[in-house]
Amino acid sequence: VDQPNGTNWIDAITRFAPVSNVSFSVSNGNEAGKYFLSVGYLKRDGILNYTGFERVSTRLNSEFKVGEKLRVGEHVNISYSNTKAGNDEAIENALRITPLLPVLDDDGEFTGVAGPGLSNTRSPAALLFRTRNDYNKRFSVFGDVYLAYDILDELTFKTTLAGGLNTFDNRAFTSLDPEHGEPISVRTLSEQDQTAYNWNWSNTLNYKKQFGDHSVNALVGVEAVKDGGKGKQIDRQGYLFDDPNFYLLSNGSGAPNVAYAYDGYNTLFSVFGTANYNFRDTYFATATLRRDESSRFLGDNKSDVFPSFSAGWVVSNEDFFPVDGFVNRLKLKGSWGELGNQTLPANNPTINISSLDESLANYSFDGAGITTGALLTQVGNPNLKWETSVTSNFGADLNLWDNKMNISAEYFNIKTKDLITRDFSLISSTAIDAGAPLVNLGDIKNTGFDFSIGYNHVSESEFGWGITANISHYKNKVVSLINDAPVAGRGDLRNGPVTRTEVGEELSYFFGRNVTGLDGNGRFVYEDVNGDGTVNDDDRTKIGSPHPDFTYGINANFEYKGFDAALFFTGSQGNDVYNYNKVFTDFGLFFNGNRSTRVLNAWTPSNTNTSVPALTTSYPLEEASANSYFVEDGSYLRLKNVQVGYTLPTTVTDKIGMDSLRLYLQATNLFTITGYEGFDPEVVAYDNLSLGVDRRVYPVSKIFTIGANFKF
User: Fold this and answer.
1) What's the rounded Cα separation, in Å, for the pair 418 and 384?
2) C-alpha separations of 700 from 95, 132, 635, 640 in Å
């Protein structure tokens, strides 16, 4: 294929990916019982070559009455899926690899950088192709059975036993890559199997009573929860073929290595109560109190109590409120409450864990025999305790002009106490195999508001339309930290972290040197922040924020006779994104690799009106370290979803034996308006301390759907 501009590697590894989604459901019932059954099939190819997802699922719900006071029921969900995830380096490598190489050579083999002057990036097309026989299969069953008995007309006892079982089967094969300058010399098979389970037993008493104008709905209960799992990964090398028919652990010639193994569980025991009060549908109040005890913590830290309270006043129901005004409904509301969090990526985060490891822990003290050793794999924190969010808010709801317009406004104040996250500053950079301990990092405060306004127009002309817009704003502030010392973000980036969290500032702001221009040689000039006449690490400062000024959304719908249309826009304004990919595409880290088109505007003696530094064969460590050159405006407006449909008239569906038939066209992520130069400004966070960092982001998919809804 003639490619005068070289290989477009993004095009080479992406494709138009079909999606198939079929579902069928049936339901029926009467006073004695009811049921619902559905079966679904989903096949979604990924837009990266050799990636995708496939799932078959079924769901059954039923409830039956036994006599006048007893009801029994169940919910069951069963699914089987297979995920082909590809290789997470492919996207980054597609940006880095030289465009001078074609995807395939004349013999149909993958090209690579084994030749001189081609850098050292592995072919992203080859990386994805060699994962084509990998899989991640999952079988999942979860559901519940329940019994409800009316002790009195006002008092109901309910017991529910729920549970779930998930099995995971993962296979990954590492093939040889002879086309690469640093080729893999041995084939490796990795197999993982994991089993996860959970059960939940809850028992409640619910009291409902109407006393004239007063209504009470109270519930007390007790709940026990257990989550557990067991799994392992075994690696083996020395395979003679790339044929998947030989992908068995017994076919390798190397010694099997247990990469990891685990077996653990955690429990939660809760006692709770809630009461709702209503007077004349005008005054409302709710109070809740719960005590939770978690096995993830130790001693007095295991349990905590979380109260909450809310109240509302429907002013428009008062006698003094005008009934003929343009305001049809006015409700004032407010709440305060505490919510605990103990959902962690570890069952026992309070203890140190060491594991045997043949490749990293065994050691020869005398140069002859090998002594078995253990490797610290988790640093525990015995002082870890519940994370608690204290939330207070108040607001108002308005309905205007015969309820055609609705307005809702709410102010909120959320203080997260004892925020749980990993503290990477507590482990040495040489202890790469030990997970950083989970700590109660500090207190975070978020204040802001949510506002929405909508209008629905209904007329006698069969044309109807409605539009709703919402906007949200929050202000984030770190109130306190451990020892009030600043905390850095993720440490696995070249040249160190790019985010920082400290008291008085926002969570996870971008931290580095502020570029003020270019000098006479085309190198960055940095701001002397402290004014001491020397620019060094002491002049690092806040260079951007991942937090938006506001986010917003717009929903619009239209109906005319049998036609309907709906649009959903979403957007963010004022947030920054740290485009980490520029490390590879704008600097000399891998000089012979690919470059962004930005470097076509790089500084030269005749092109000084630019922000792009001069090209160099060396790797300027300072310039590729955290600085404002990498920070971009991440604001965007996206048409998230648009759907157009047509419902056939009943005169047609009656003739073909259907209750209804609707045909529709749908597009998802149809367009995005943004100035951000990366794949997607809507960056998924790596963790709470590394917000807004764009690295190896899977590209967002445009999805076009043709569908039909049948009802019999």
Assistant:
1) 9
2) 16, 21, 16, 11
Say if residues 65 and 71 touch (Cβ distance below 8 Å). yes
CA 521, CA 36: separation in Å to the nearest integer? 73
pLDDT tens figures, 55-76:
999 999 999 999 999 999 999 9
Contact 73, 64 (CB under 8 A): yes
> What is the per-residue pLDDT across 633-653, written as a single tens digit (0 to 9) for each?
999 999 999 999 999 998 888
Q: What is the 3-state secondary structure (H, E, C) of 45-114?
A: ECCECCCEEEEEEEEEEEEEEECCCEEEEEEEEEEEEEEECCCCCHHHHHHHCCCCCCCECCCCCECCCC
Sort 613 into a burial class: Cβ within 10 Å, 0-12 / 13-18 / 19+. Answer: buried
CA distance 171 to 445: 43
- Give yes or no for residue 4 having a pLDDT over 70: no
Tokens of 294: 């978690």
Q: Is the pTM of this model over 0.90?
A: no
What CA–CA distance (Å, rounded) separates 604 from 430?
A: 41
Give the model confidence (pLDDT) of 116-164 as tens digits.
Answer: 878 889 999 999 999 999 999 999 999 999 999 999 999 999 999 999 9
pLDDT value at position 428? 67
